[in-house]
Design a protein that fits this description.
The chain is of the alpha+beta class. It is built from 4 helices and 5 strands; from the N terminus they run H-H-H-H-E-E-E-E-E. It has helices at about 5-15, 20-30, 45-50, 60-75; strands spanning about 80, 85, 90-100, 100-110, 115-125. The longest helix has 13 residues, at about 60-75.
Length: about 120
């Protein structure tokens, strides 16, 4: 969370009273990696895999990224999912879901025995 000031600001806005708990969660999960064999029906890419597809010298980096991505993985889309950050009582969590050129932030709340969600932020490039 410290490496991404924008994300930190959004999360603190929803969990201000739990800032110590949030910092502990982020430190705990900092090196978390999904195990691809546990999700055999999807291709899992690390942030490192995606960064390697960027060409910082390209004039149109977005188009070049998409070309590199499609060359390596085909004409399939992808989602980048953040690790959820939970409130201390585990009844609220925040998560980001991004794809190429857009994304949303969600706040999930557990109330009356079920989870509900609302979009708290949307972006497009």
């Amino acid at each position: 969370m410290d490496q991404n000031p924008s994300l930190k600001k959004r999360i603190i806005a929803y969990f201000d009273q739990d800032s110590v708990s949030l910092q502990m969660q982020c430190k705990k999960w900092h090196h978390f990696k999904l195990e691809p064999q546990r999700i055999p029906f999807k291709t899992l890419l690390s942030a490192h895999d995606l960064v390697n597809l960027y060409d910082s010298k390209a004039t149109d980096r977005s188009s070049r990224f998409l070309q590199n991505y499609q060359k390596k993985y085909g004409n399939h889309g992808f989602y980048q999912v953040s690790i959820p950050v939970f409130s201390r009582d585990k009844k609220v969590f925040y998560i980001d879901l991004n794809t190429f050129g857009s994304g949303q932030s969600f706040l999930f709340t557990f109330k009356n025995g079920k989870w509900t969600h609302r979009v708290v932020s949307t972006w497009m490039s």
